[in-house]
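User: Design a sequence. Structure:
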């Protein structure tokens, strides 16, 4: 297979085209719109000028001859591949070919195609030496991968036929796959959407995250409301991931900082606790393109010499593997409770592990591409690091630490490189979602980074003082506010007009479900449970509707009320007491309303447990009206409303 791209050194060319060839098919993706020049900090700006058309065609001919043979897109070849994996990569009983084994073997068969595409994709990117974007996120809410992958590869028909020959239905096989428990809400869903989109648009990009063993939690709904149990989604293994024991990086906590003998601002971080981050790669296929990018997940462990063999043989088993457990628990669950000091420490360890391992990997890849002569000034021209929300913000001091303490650059060089490399997007302005750490905890866990953060603070203040010629704190605050406003000075007036007009639209009148001819309205509010998302307001409205119904006769109820099914779904964080009370209230109201013989089918309240991507794929197409009634100013975007809008469902908003 062969990949070719044509780029301009200042813009993404209007004639950009990526052709993907195999012996059996030819896919071609092109887009013909002029893209404006990006600033130097843009995360997805490709600046490499590729060779002329003649040279590109010559490369295509050479690469085509050496390309890996792809799986033939016919049902017989696919069935043979599935049978091969069922026999030679056994994770189940070899005598039986039941649904769990059929899923695992099918996924392995698809992964073979993705790995071949992945290798060819990155061989091409390395040859043309393009700028690469690296997307760091604590969450990736992927859902199931099998149907998505074969759909993107346009192989759904052949796989369905192959499995039918082997005695199984594709849909039944796909249902055996658990949702990857790597995310929870819109933050993770957007992260996965970005990876899908970048692969589809043929952008050279990677994702970086953590490999959570138990996810957030599995939600159970009982008479007491929400209960949480570990979500053991890796119990039967993950056929999509590729463990990379050859790619691991040291991570340090605690310890102390001493001056380096080499000087130049370089410090040495010594002592403390040392663990190892090991890479797991998951291929992400683009839609109708053979471009396949990578999601690299980190798992944590310690080196074998840390195991205390003497203590183990003496019977002190907990002491023997104490260090192992401390390292492994970093990747146990997503968002561990942070009410305690230990919980806060664990969360900070998670975030630093993601940042440090990912940046060490990014720097290593950059050095390998440079060869013997590494030009660090070129780093921002080849690398863009995008931080998804505030969780990976330790990337900034960590990149400076690597450049200064490990690679020997000066502070000024490292600071300039970091400013041009790292970008940030936040998803909400809620105080609880903006990372804040006590100075004592940071000083204890990451002493070198506290020093760097202080230097960054001094750098920012001195820059503003130099620009405006004052050290008056009130004036500085005023100037910072002015700078924030002026950041949008080039925003087109048409966009501003659109923003103003959007507030004038009486959206609350845009949906009138009473005019529908269906037997009942399905009204959903499916998103994580939070006070600002106002599931409480929704359920109180249902209680009001129920009370009004009870005041009427049976004939009046049938004439004045359209049957309605009210659907709730979403998780409340395990330590968020008020949100869990809301879940309990919803289930209690449902227990009362659903069993009232006078109301019958005129009103039902349903709470769908363990809401995830797979559940959303069923609920969203079946729902007629989706409620988005979050408190004004609290919702950054609300990703679920985008999904409902795409299926032409009604959206109910509240005007403030």
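Assistant: Done.
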């Amino acid at each position: 297979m062969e990949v070719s791209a044509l780029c301009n050194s200042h813009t993404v060319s209007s004639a950009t085209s990526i052709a993907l060839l195999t012996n059996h098919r030819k896919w071609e993706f092109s887009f013909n719109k002029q893209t404006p020049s990006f600033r130097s900090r843009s995360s997805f700006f490709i600046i490499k000028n590729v060779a002329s058309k003649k040279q590109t065609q010559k490369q295509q001919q050479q690469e085509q001859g050496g390309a890996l043979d792809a799986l033939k897109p016919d049902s017989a070849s696919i069935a043979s591949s599935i049978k091969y994996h069922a026999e030679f990569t056994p994770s189940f009983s070899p005598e039986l070919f039941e649904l769990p084994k059929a899923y695992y073997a099918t996924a392995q068969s698809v992964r073979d195609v993705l790995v071949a595409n992945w290798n060819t994709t990155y061989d091409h990117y390395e040859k043309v030496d393009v700028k690469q974007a690296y997307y760091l996120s604590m969450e990736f809410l992927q859902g199931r991968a099998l149907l998505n992958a074969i759909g993107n590869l346009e192989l759904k028909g052949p796989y369905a036929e192959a499995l039918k020959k082997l005695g199984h239905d594709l849909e039944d096989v796909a249902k055996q796959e658990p949702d990857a428990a790597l995310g929870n809400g819109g933050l993770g869903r957007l992260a996965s959407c970005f990876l899908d989109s970048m692969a589809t648009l043929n952008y050279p990009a990677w994702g970086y995250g953590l490999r959570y063993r138990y996810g957030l939690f599995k939600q159970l709904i009982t008479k007491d409301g929400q209960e949480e149990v570990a979500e053991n989604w890796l119990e039967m293994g993950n056929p999509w991931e590729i463990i990379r024991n050859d790619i691991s990086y040291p991570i340090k906590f605690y310890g102390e900082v001493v001056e380096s003998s080499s000087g130049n601002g370089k410090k040495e971080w010594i002592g403390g606790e040392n663990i190892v981050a090991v890479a797991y790669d998951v291929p992400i296929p683009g839609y109708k393109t053979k471009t396949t990018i990578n999601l690299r997940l980190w798992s944590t462990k310690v080196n074998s010499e840390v195991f205390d063999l003497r203590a183990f043989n003496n019977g002190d088993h907990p002491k023997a593997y104490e260090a192992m457990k401390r390292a492994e628990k970093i990747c146990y669950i997503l968002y561990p409770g942070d009410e305690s000091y230990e919980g806060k420490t664990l969360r900070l360890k998670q975030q630093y592990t993601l940042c440090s391992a990912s940046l060490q990997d990014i720097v290593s890849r950059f050095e390998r591409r440079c060869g013997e002569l590494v030009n660090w000034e070129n780093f921002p021209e080849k690398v863009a690091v995008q931080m998804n929300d505030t969780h990976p913000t330790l990337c900034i001091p960590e990149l400076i630490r690597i450049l200064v303490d490990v690679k020997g650059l000066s502070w000024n060089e490292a600071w300039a490189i970091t400013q041009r490399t790292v970008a940030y997007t936040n998803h909400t302005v809620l105080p609880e979602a903006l990372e804040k750490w006590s100075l004592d905890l940071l000083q204890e866990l990451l002493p070198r980074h506290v020093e760097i953060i202080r230097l960054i603070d001094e750098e920012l203040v001195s820059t503003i003082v130099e620009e405006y010629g004052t050290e008056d704190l009130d004036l500085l605050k005023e100037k910072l506010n002015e700078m924030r406003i002026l950041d949008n000075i080039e925003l087109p007036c048409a966009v501003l007009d659109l923003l103003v007009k959007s507030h004038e639209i009486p959206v609350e009148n845009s949906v009138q479900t009473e005019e529908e001819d269906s037997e009942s309205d399905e009204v959903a509010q499916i998103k994580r449970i939070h006070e600002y998302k106002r599931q409480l307001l929704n359920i109180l409205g249902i209680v009001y509707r129920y009370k009004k119904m009870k005041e009427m006769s049976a004939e009046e109820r049938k004439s004045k009320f359209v049957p309605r099914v009210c659907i709730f779904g979403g998780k409340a964080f395990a330590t968020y007491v008020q949100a869990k009370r809301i879940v309990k209230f919803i289930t209690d109201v449902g227990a009362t309303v659903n069993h009232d013989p006078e109301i019958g089918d005129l009103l039902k309240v349903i709470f769908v447990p363990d809401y995830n991507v797979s559940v959303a794929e069923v609920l969203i197409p079946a729902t007629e009206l989706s409620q988005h009634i979050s408190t004004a100013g609290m919702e950054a975007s609300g990703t679920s409303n985008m999904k409902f809008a795409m299926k032409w469902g009604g959206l109910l908003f509240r005007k403030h």
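The two ends are 55 Å apart (CA to CA). The chain has two domains: 2-432, 507-653.
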